[in-house]
# Entry
Amino acid sequence: MAASRSDPMNAEPDLDARCRALVADLGLGTAAEVASVTHLTGGVASDIARVVVHGTSYCAKFALARLRVAQDWRAPVHRSRAECAWLSRAGEIVPGIAPKVVGYSDPLQGFLMEDVSGPDIYLWKTAMLSGASRGEEAALVAAPLAQIHAAGAAPGFDRHPFRNAADFRAIRTDPYLRATAAHHPDLAPRLLDLADAIDAATTTLVHGDVSPKNILVRTGAPVFLDAECATMGDPAFDVAFCINHLALKAAHLPANRQPLLAAMHAFWASYASGITWEDAGALQARVATLQPALMLARIDGKSPVEYLDDATRAHVRHIARALILDAPDTIATLTARLERTLTP
Ligand SMILES: Nc1ncnc2c1ncn2[C@@H]1O[C@H](COP(=O)(O)OP(=O)(O)O)[C@@H](O)[C@H]1O
Ligand SMILES: [Mg+2]
# Structure
């Protein structure tokens, strides 16, 4: 029986209707056969709901045209097609690394995927912020990321679904790096060069949002979500993006600073052993140069980090600026300098 739309646990009417239409469009049942639609909170870029039909629970995801962030940030809704393509392709390369895609609906601009939830499943970010994780998952996340990058760089990889350079620019290099350059005129040449180089690269399949808030951990193995930035691009972006989150957590959580900085290292070591497509030293230098720029972007770009207090934000700004002006070329140098400067 269809759930009542006045049920407070239910999605708002529009999302409820879209989820029912999605189920019908994908041929899983009629709109009336959907037993429940529950809005999941947490997403800033999309509407996500848990949808139960014929006793099976799925997740439905629809991209939002305007992101739920303080600044005006618009992004094309067709990016959910790129997300679906990444989730499917990554799951072929590394089984279990992404929720299984049930189907994508062009008219509804949304898709249905496996519901990855249960008592033993946690979000990596939540675990780190609560102190339950001190970054131990880093190596587990890095290894499959390298496998995906290796597969995406291989000859014969079907690049067609991932020609998303314009979207990547709109939702990554513009709001992060170019927006930050506008706040720091003295650093602008460096930040704009970085942004241009990233936008020009087509080396491999990049996820584009490898953040602990987009990584579930299921029986000790990561499940990557939220691939709507997926593009052919520079693998250094994914690595720098993820270790940047560890650096920001290290700034935020003094008690876990050492293990979180060590986790940046562990991430790199695990990832580096899977680099097959280019010189590891060159990639490492790009990561070490980009991470401080992304760190500054989380202070002064369009997607500021929400958990740092004012004093820590100012301190991170200062550290990031110094690392951009005098860029390290190895992860060891980067983390050593972070360690030295984060603790006053
Ligand atoms: N397939 C899924 N199974 C279980 N939970 C999911 C799934 N997809 C998303 N979620 C939940 O919704 C949250 C937001 O999803 P995400 O894809 O990251 O959306 P957004 O693009 O809005 O950030 C995730 O942090 C997770 O808690
Ligand atoms: Mg997300």
